Amino acid sequence: MFDQLFLGSHNTRLISGAEEPVYLPADMPDNKQSQQNQAGGTAYHRLCFRQDYLSSALHEIAHWCLAGTQRLLLEDFGYWYQPDGRSAEQQQVFEAVEVRPQALEWMFSVACGQ
Q1: Could you tell me the residue range of the domain that residue 76 belongs to?
Q2: How far is residue 58 CA from its own chain's centroid?
Q3: Exposed e or buried b for every residue in 22-32, given b needs 16+ CB within 10 A?
Q4: What is the DSSP letter of 73?
Q5: Can you tell me the distance from the alpha carbon of 114 to that of 107, in angstroms, rounded to the nearest whole number?
Q6: Is the CB of residue 11 less than 8 Å from the CB of residue 44?
């Protein structure tokens, strides 16, 4: 459904099966995603979500909805990602950044009946 709605208007596809969620602008190669064209990316933007988890898709869509025009040109919207093991200060910053996407993800989940 996402591709039907946004591929034509926003040149963006939602892609399942990623080991880690990531947003990749058009023409950006990504050696981490096996489904990508290793020679130089694709002609469309890719919003990749973890495995086939609906919650991961909704969370990444929330980030995509909130990203401004400039952030849509940057890998992972230009955000830093620190895996588990963050310091208390890093965790506080991470939680502050994630409040809006998580709120939107929750609304999407309710709308989907999840």
Answers
A1: 2-112
A2: 9
A3: bbbbeebebee
A4: G
A5: 10
A6: yes
Confidence of residue 84 (pLDDT cuts 50, 70, 90): confident
Q: Could you give the CA distance from residue 29 to residue 7 in angstroms, rounded to a whole number? A: 19
How confident is the prediction for the chain on average, in pLDDT? 88
Which residues face 47 on adjacent strands?
A: 14, 23
Number of domains comprising the chain: 1
Is pLDDT above 50 for 68?
yes
- Quote the CA–CA distance of 29 and 2 in Å, as a whole number: 22
* 11-39 pLDDT, tens digit each: 999 999 999 899 999 988 765 444 444 44
DSSP E strand stretches across the chain: 12-18, 22-24, 45-50
Question: What pLDDT is stored for residue 40 in this prediction?
Answer: 62
Residue with tokens 């989940």: 109
Secondary structure (3-state) at 54: helix
d(CA 23, CA 25): 7
Is beta strand 22-24 parallel, antiparallel or unpaired with respect to 12-18?
unpaired
Q: What are phi and psi of 81, to 5 degrees?
A: -130, 125
